[in-house]
Amino acid sequence: MSFKLPNGEDLSVEQTDIINLPTTKDWVIKGGPGTGKTVMAIYRVGQASAISKDKNVIMLVYNRTLKEFLST
Questions:
Q1: What angle do CA 24, 28, 29 make, to 5 degrees?
Q2: Helices then strands (H, E): number in the chain?
Q3: Coil, helix or strand for 3?
């Protein structure tokens, strides 16, 4: 099993809005399975890392396949 991150064009308007929320606050994102919560988290971590090069960003995941994907 592998994990494929969708392109930015494949995201819904709602997902794009969530990804672009200010990084100066904490947000709780709720949704059912397959709604893109993990995808949004990955994009937000990437965004936060790019903005704050002097800060460490840690993302904890439960799935081994996703962990391996994020390690590359």
A1: 115
A2: 3, 0
A3: coil
Radius of gyration of the chain (CA): 12
pTM of the model: 0.68
Measure the CA–CA gap between 62 and 14, rounded to whole angstroms. 25
CA 47 to CA 10: how far, in whole Å? 17
- CA angle 25–11–47, rounded 5-degree value: 35
List pLDDT tens digits, range 16-58.
898 888 878 888 889 888 888 888 888 888 776 666 666 677 7
Please check the confidence at residue 10 and state whether its pLDDT lies above 60: yes
Helix (H) or strand (E) holding 66: helix 64-71
Look at residue 5 in the predicted model and tell me its pLDDT.
Answer: 79
**DSSP assignment letter at 62:** S
